[in-house]
Amino acid sequence: MKFKNYLVLFFTLFFLNFTLTSYACSCKNYIGMEEHISSSEIIFSGIVKNVEYCELESDDKGKTRKVQLYTIEILNAYKGINGKSIEIITGLGFGDCGDHFAIGEEYLIFAYDIGYTKKSDGLYETNICAWNGLVNEKEEYIEMLTRLKSDGAFNK
Prior knowledge:
Layout (H helix, E strand, L loop, with lengths): L2 H17 L13 H7 L2 E16 L6 E16 L5 E6 L15 E6 L12 E2 L7 E2 L4 H12 L6
Parallel strand pairs: 3-5
Antiparallel strand pairs: 1-2, 1-4, 2-3, 4-6
């Protein structure tokens, strides 16, 4: 390879180093199922009806964040939620821990009001660390949640 080709390669790699943004998602705080259930603010199962991609202003000095906004019809409310539907936000994925849900599928969802937007604004967030999943793949959780709900554990 000629010197000129090496120079072009060097500068290309050099400038790519400064233009690419690196993201990483880490679910490093592993906890057991019981702890996860008790630390979740709302838990429900429902059918995904719609998804919109939007930009929300955070509660952190006017910064914005691109998110997915899912509209979900609630079928079973286990903890901290009433109503027939809810909107849940999650990141886009690609390293921001965003989760993805297919329209028309039924999911078990664990969500939090973590305050990315204004705290207590009714907008809950979830991510891939939250143990969400298709209902037919979460039978063990469903059984435990149903038992806890019938025992009144979430009313305390």
